[in-house]
């Protein structure tokens, strides 16, 4: 039997990974009201870090901002165009951004990248997925601008390229990654044919020499499974990107192994787990030992500041024994 590539080492720019199992970016609302991390956050990540590297994902909400929070904090909701994410009352009516605000956004991403580096993160991931601000600029369903930031494939890619260049200038391409969700319908997204637009942006960020690209499978919308009959392939992106690739969306140990061993034996893929990593602090150990992950409890994903559903998921007995030995 050929070795399981999921458990083989992989070099991602300067990062020497021991295996190809990664933790997906997961918003958990456990910091303070002023967005400051606490010892609880340290405990959560320490539980899940078995000799590892950590990227900080940076993103702006755009029209996906929660209306109530924006009102409470006196923030105007801005987006590429004055188009709501959906009829869901949690979203507000955005105002189209001025050129000055777009310039400030580029600067804000560069500043955030610098802060992440200074805080000790190994890499920075620019979030261009799941219907947040940069994804809104990329896709025509949310971008109907008639200036140089909209109206054509090239123009819709422009802000993402400017942001990526600015981040690369600050921290270096070898510490920069990007996340895309070409097929996601979450938060009112998905172009009629996303392939030409995403081909353009993948080619452009490839030319900048980023450390990795991270993709989300179409079987996931945000953090929810969608019907298998509505799924589409990421094949076009695999053909364009030959450097390390992170892939997430509904994977378990078997399907992850199949992806890296059988479907893409010539690609360097890290399979990301989201919900299973929420519930299972010793996930790589369990994959290696063929042990099942803990079941996750969706109702505790976002309980603000609470250790419940955050740091109280158990390690396996086998893992505890192995660290005592
Ligand atoms: C609680 C929760 C929070 C999430 N937060 C983010 C986020 O901040 N950024 C992001 O890119 N994806 C986020 N996601 C999506 C995950 O990164 C991942 O793509 C998705 O859960 C699919 O992977 P899975 O099937 O292994 O859970 C979140 C998912 C969950 C369940």
TrEMBL record:
Top-level taxon: Eukaryota
GO molecular function: FMN binding; NADPH dehydrogenase activity
Domain NADH:flavin oxidoreductase/NADH oxidase N-terminal residue range list: 50-292
Transmembrane segments: none
InterPro entries: Aldolase_TIM (IPR013785), OxRdtase_FMN_N (IPR001155), Oye-like (IPR045247)
Protein name: NADH:flavin oxidoreductase/NADH oxidase family protein-like protein
């Amino acid at each position: 039997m050929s070795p399981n590539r999921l458990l083989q080492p992989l070099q991602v720019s300067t990062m020497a990974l021991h295996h190809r199992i990664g933790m997906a970016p997961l918003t958990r609302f456990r910091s303070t009201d002023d967005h400051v991390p606490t010892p609880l956050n340290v405990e959560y990540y320490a539980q899940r870090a078995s000799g590892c590297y950590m990227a900080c994902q940076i993103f702006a909400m755009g029209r996906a901002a929660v209306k109530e929070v924006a009102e409470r904090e006196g923030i105007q909701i801005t987006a590429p165009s004055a188009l709501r994410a959906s009829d869901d009352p949690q979203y507000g009516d955005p105002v189209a951004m001025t050129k000055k605000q777009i310039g400030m956004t580029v600067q804000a991403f560069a500043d955030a990248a610098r802060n992440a580096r200074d805080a000790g993160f190994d890499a920075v991931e620019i979030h261009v997925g799941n219907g947040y601000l940069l994804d809104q600029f990329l896709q025509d369903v949310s971008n109907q601008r008639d200036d140089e930031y909209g109206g054509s494939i090239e123009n819709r890619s422009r802000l993402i390229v400017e942001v990526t260049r600015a981040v690369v200038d600050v921290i270096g391409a070898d510490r920069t990654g990007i996340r895309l969700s070409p097929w996601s319908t979450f938060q009112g997204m998905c172009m009629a044919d996303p392939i030409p637009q995403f081909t353009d942006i993948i080619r452009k960020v490839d030319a900048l020499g980023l450390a990795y690209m991270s993709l989300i499978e179409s079987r996931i919308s945000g953090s929810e499974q969608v019907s298998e009959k509505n799924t589409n392939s990421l094949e076009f992106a695999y053909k364009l990107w030959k450097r390390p690739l992170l892939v997430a969306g509904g994977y378990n140990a078997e399907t992850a192994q199949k992806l890296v061993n059988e479907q893409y034996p010539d690609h360097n893929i890290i399979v990301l787990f989201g919900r299973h990593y929420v519930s299972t602090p010793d996930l790589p150990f369990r994959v290696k030992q063929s042990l099942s992950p803990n079941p996750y409890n969706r109702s505790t994903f976002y309980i603000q500041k609470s250790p419940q559903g955050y740091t109280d998921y158990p390690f396996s007995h086998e893992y505890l024994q192995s660290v005592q030995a």
